[in-house]
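User: structure tokens for this one?
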Amino acid sequence: MLRLHGFCQSGNTFKVAFALRAMALPYETVFVDFMHGQTRDAAWRAQINAMGEAPVLDDGALRLTQSGVILTHLARRSGRFGGRDEAEARDVLRWLLFDNHKFTSYFATFRFMRAFGANAPDPAVLAFLKSRIDGAYGIVDQHLSTREWLVGDAPTIADFSLSGYLFYPVQESGIDLAHSHPHIAAWVRRLRGLPGWGDPYEVLPGERIEPRWTSA
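Assistant:
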């Protein structure tokens, strides 16, 4: 049985759950209490993930961390969403790396500070992160202006990866893609229509938390 360790606020966990559901791979979830510091616990790191992060996927005796690695493993395991040939597989990897370095990383940090951080975020830090988000999102918005999916003519794990944080309520990030990046917004609507899509707060374990600093 596949076991996915994570929590509902984690877009990185959601991108794996989305892939598992789209691939029709049965799995069970294990709640990670990130908001109360479980991933900082030495015992948890020793037993589950030394990097102190979610998601974690158990596939029998194999334990995988980092969403890009997990998605690549699932694509190979299922024979789906990994690209139709070697050239597409390379392009999928290119977008996975871009996602982890720029697209998701800045947005996830911005959203967390604005919605869930213990202290009110520094406006200067938010402004810096927002500038980086605008740059990365502009690249993807332009890319999607002439195509429906990131790679080829069908969805891949690259689409699951980059979209992981884009299904959460607008008030958590304050970024309305329909106005700021319409091609990304249209792509998100297409992804919502895929078999297996579900709301992160419904398909992942944990409780929804109201944003703390939405006026920041």
